[in-house]
Design brief:
Elements (H helix, E strand, L loop, with lengths): L4 H7 L1 H7 L6 H16 L3 H40 L7 H16 L15
C-alpha cells in the first residue's frame, strides 16, 4: 500500500498521527518514574502541587517545540519533494519582487504580459 501524505492531509488522518503518543523505552520510562518518586517523597503537599504544575507547564513547552520541529520538517520535506520533481520554487522575497514589478509595469501603462512591453493605450 502506497503512503500518501497529501491524502492524509485531506482526510484528516495526519492530525491523528501527529497526536499519537511517541513511544518511550520501558527502561527510560522506569528511570523517570523511579527518580520522580524519590524526589516527590521528600516533598510536602505544597511542593508536590508546585512540582505537578511545573511538569504540566514543561510538557506544554515541549509540545510547542515538537510542533515547531514537525512544521519545519514538513516544510522542508515538501520543498525537497518539489525540488526532486524539478519544479521551480520561488522565495517569498522573489514573489514580492515579481508582484512589485508587475504592479509598477501595469501602473505605467505597459502590459507585462506582452513580449514587447508595448503600451496598452494606443
Amino acid at each position: 500500500m502506497r503512503i500518501s501524505v497529501l491524502q492524509e492531509l485531506l482526510d484528516g488522518s495526519l492530525q491523528a498521527t501527529m497526536e499519537e503518543r511517541i513511544p518511550v523505552s520501558e527502561i527510560a520510562q522506569k528511570e523517570l518514574e523511579e527518580s520522580t518518586e524519590k524526589l516527590t517523597n521528600s516533598f510536602n503537599e505544597e511542593q508536590k502541587e508546585l512540582f505537578d504544575q511545573y511538569l504540566f507547564a514543561e510538557s506544554g513547552v515541549e509540545e510547542e517545540k515538537e510542533n515547531a520541529c514537525f512544521k519545519r520538517g514538513f516544510r522542508y520535506g515538501l520543498l525537497l519533494g518539489v525540488e526532486v520533481c524539478d519544479m521551480k520554487t520561488t522565495t517569498q522575497k522573489e514573489q514580492w519582487h515579481k508582484i512589485n514589478n508587475f504592479s509598477n509595469e501595469t501602473s505605467r501603462g505597459k502590459s507585462p504580459l506582452s513580449d514587447e512591453g508595448e503600451n496598452i493605450k494606443k
